[in-house]
Design brief:
The protein has 208 residues and is of the alpha/beta class. The chain is built from eight helices and five strands. A five-stranded parallel beta sheet has the order 2-3-1-4-5, sandwiched between helices. Helix 3 packs antiparallel against helix 4 (100-109). 38% of the residues are buried. Bound molecules: adenosine-5'-diphosphate and thymidine-5'-diphosphate.
Length: 208
């Protein structure tokens, strides 16, 4: 099996190294001659980037959890239609920084149990899962420190602190067991090079 037309997502708490490692895997796959599209959520298409600004800026209580589910799902639908599906149809490898698993965690868990609502809306409006999800598992305090050290204006959630990071870490590990057929869990508490090599080997194994 080849990597052409495969959809690979990266998940993990803020500051776990997702953007860094997507960049590294993209370089590696391009070096192997693959056509790679790097994208992110929320965002990844012009319309979804506009929704990103709405949802990630402003006061922490700007939106209810339910409204956030709708906004993230609207952004995802546009991203899927305009960026992800066309690229996959052309046989490109799509590497995406966060996807529906982030909504399952952040909106589904952090303010009450809304997981069933997230899953229903996902089934109705998105209806697709990645071929592979790389979970970068990370000590919450270190992740938060890293995230805060490269602070941008998209910080509505980072203001929520270490307790949320710890809950999200546990939630992502639970999710990796729930969807064990598509998840690989990588230890992010190591140097960037070691993590990048580990991911490259395990992605190649998965699709060989
Ligand atoms: P994420 O996209 O998951 O929020 P980033 O890739 O943006 O994480 O990394 C957050 C910060 O931590 C960046 O400043 C990055 O350079 C740094 N970083 C990423 N991976 C490592 C690592 N393995 N060791 C030390 N610092 C790292
Ligand atoms: P991101 O830009 O990936 O932040 P980071 O690089 O710090 O990980 O994501 C921004 C924030 O959006 C992040 O705190 C997680 C949150 N988020 C949700 O709450 N729900 C979602 O569905 C997605 C995709 C992201």
């Amino acid at each position: 099996m080849s990597l052409n037309g495969k959809f690979i997502t990266f998940e993990g708490i803020d500051g776990s190294g997702k953007s860094t490692q997507i960049e590294r895997l993209a370089e590696n796959l391009r070096g192997a001659g693959l056509d790679v599209v790097q994208t992110r959520e929320p965002g990844g298409s012009p319309g979804a980037e506009e929704i990103r600004a709405l949802v990630l800026r402003g006061a922490p209580d700007r939106w209810s959890a339910e409204t956030e589910i709708l906004l993230f799902t609207a952004a995802r639908r546009d991203h899927l239609e305009r960026t992800i599906e066309p690229a996959l149809a052309q046989g490109k490898v799509v590497l995406c920084d966060r996807f529906a698993d982030s909504t399952r965690m952040y909106q589904g868990l952090s303010r009450g149990d809304l997981r069933a609502t997230v899953d229903s809306l996902h089934a109705l409006m998105i209806g697709r899962e990645p071929d592979l999800t790389v979970l970068i598992d990370m000590d919450p305090a270190t992740g938060l420190q890293r995230a805060l050290s490269r602070r941008t204006e998209d910080e509505r959630f980072e203001g929520f602190g270490e307790e949320l990071q710890a809950a999200m870490r546990r939630g992502f590990l639970d999710l990796s067991r729930e969807f064990s057929e598509r998840f690989i869990v990588v230890d992010g508490n190591r140097s960037m090079d070691v993590v990048a090599d580990d991911i490259a080997v395990r992605v190649a194994e998965r699709f060989s």
